[in-house]
Amino acid sequence: MGLIHIDLFTTLDGVAQAPGGPDEDTDSGFAFGGWQAPLIDEVVGEQIDSGMAEMDALLLGRRTYDIFAAYWPHVAEGSIARLFNRLPKYVASRQARTLEWANSTLLGPDVAVAVRELRARHENIHVIGSLDFVQTLFAERLFDRLTLWVYPILLGRGKKVFADGVVPTNLRLVEPAVTSPKGAVLQRYALADGTPGVGDMSAGDRET
């Protein structure tokens, strides 16, 4: 059974909208597109590259697919370009459409069923960006790993990693956090069983 990996870049206050460029996603007048660019350094780059080594399929929302399809097929050099261009790519879209990027397939109308079927075909399926689509995966608990690069800035407004679609979920940190020279922190989690527990912290105070 394959694993669904969600890979996201986020600010400290949870904004994950348009990290890559000013025109990536301007919904609601978002004015900070490309906020990640000044904070990239060698450690971030190395960790991104190492995380892609195991990838054998891409699962993307429509907007991210369109951005990738307009760029990566036209890049002749580089390990990421070669990887993305040869990998199978699966696209979640509410509209019927033609996919011109090689090795691209449109998911069926029942996205949850289609994503579950992908696990039987691939070992490590990565969802990169695709923030609107990610909310569906969170709501359905349709992921196995969550990788977050958390950057030391606050934007206040913008689409958030954890919007209204999340359900109470336990996660388990699978490796020590990595901090880059510019202050970005890599956190990798696995989906864990059950839902968050509760307790009474005041009970311990009475015992002491």
Automatic annotation (TrEMBL):
<feature type="domain" description="Bacterial bifunctional deaminase-reductase C-terminal">
    <location>
        <begin position="5"/>
        <end position="175"/>
    </location>
</feature>
<protein>
    <submittedName>
        <fullName>Dihydrofolate reductase family protein</fullName>
    </submittedName>
</protein>
<dbReference type="InterPro" id="IPR024072">
    <property type="entry name" value="DHFR-like_dom_sf"/>
</dbReference>
<dbReference type="Pfam" id="PF01872">
    <property type="entry name" value="RibD_C"/>
</dbReference>
<dbReference type="InterPro" id="IPR002734">
    <property type="entry name" value="RibDG_C"/>
</dbReference>
